[in-house]
Specification:
about 15% strand, about 45% helix, Oxidoreductase, globular, Rossmann fold, NAD(P)-bd_dom_sf, two-stranded parallel ribbon, alpha/beta, about 280 residues, seven-stranded parallel sheet
Length: about 280
């Protein structure tokens, strides 16, 4: 990726987890970060330590499209450009579909799908005018691999990954990177962080283990967010960067197993699949 020596980043969910680690890594590289969070108090210490590199921004990515567009436009107006948009804001949700309320369902799609889509849409005119830019989508291994109780969470990630994959062909002047972390030691599993739908006894055997996993693994995840941030910066600058970047051995293993299952099904059922073409089609 050919990029300016000094880049301007907009990172959502920058107060903790991957967002904070990416902000730290970009600042260490000499770049400027507009660090967005719903509550900027959590960014005060970082901004005070780097007053010329970190600019806190109060931003709710589930807000109106006009507000998100205005935020992106304001970053460009104040800094002269936007080089990297990191769609990172997110949360964990556990619940079978039948357990998940309509409000919970809509809220998670607003956070994981609509927000990143609208922010990316707002950035595209600026990237087009510059002739370049990058969008990093902090997805999840759940963007490819499902687990009982994570169905709605995975659905939001599957949806936004499909949109970003399409954008690669629509916007060849923009670099897109879908990051798919496994279990990393962020705050997603800390007590009170996850939305837990009201459990139904009918799903205790299937969703129960997932609830227990979330409740019992805070601080025990194998992934290091700082190493993840370093990997993301490295890939962003690579000439042969992939579209998808799984992070963590668990993510790599899970995705590889899924792709193997898909390939096996495709091969086994290919005669049935291809038998549906019209006879007059060559």
């Amino acid at each position: 990726m050919t990029s300016p020596r000094h880049r301007v980043w907009l990172v959502t969910g920058a107060s903790s987890g991957f967002g904070r680690a990416i902000t730290d890594a970009a600042v260490a590289a000499g770049d400027t970060v507009v660090a967005a969070a719903r509550r900027t108090e959590a960014l005060a210490e970082l901004a005070a330590a780097h007053p010329d590199r970190v600019e806190p921004l109060a931003l709710d990515v589930t807000g109106p499209a006009a507000d998100l567009t205005a935020a992106v436009d304001d970053v460009v107006a104040r800094h002269g450009r936007l080089d990297v948009l990191v769609n990172n804001a997110g949360r964990t949700q556990v619940g079978a579909l039948e357990e998940t309320t309509e409000d919970e369902l809509r809220a998670l799609f607003d956070l994981h799908t609509m927000g990143p889509a609208l922010l990316t849409r707002a950035a595209l005119p600026h990237f087009r005018a510059q002739g370049q830019g990058a969008v990093v989508l902090m997805s999840s291994v759940g963007g490819q691999v499902t687990l009982p109780g994570f169905g709605v969470y995975c659905a939001t990630k599957f949806a936004i990954e499909g949109l970003v994959e399409t954008l690669v062909d629509e916007c060849p002047h923009v670099r897109f990177l879908i990051v798919e972390p496994g279990a990393f030691r962020t705050e997603l599993f800390r007590p009170g962080a996850a939305v837990l739908s009201t459990p139904m006894p009918e799903y205790e055997d299937t969703v129960g283990p997932t609830r227990a996993f979330v409740a019992g693994n805070d601080g025990r995840q194998p992934g290091d967010p700082d190493k993840a941030a370093a990997a993301i910066l490295r890939v962003l600058d690579a000439d042969d960067a992939p579209l998808r970047l799984p992070l963590g051995q668990d993510a790599v293993s899970g995705i590889r197993a899924r792709l193997t299952r898909i390939a096996d099904d495709l091969e086994r059922w290919e005669p049935v699949s291809t038998s549906t073409d019209r006879d007059d089609v060559g």
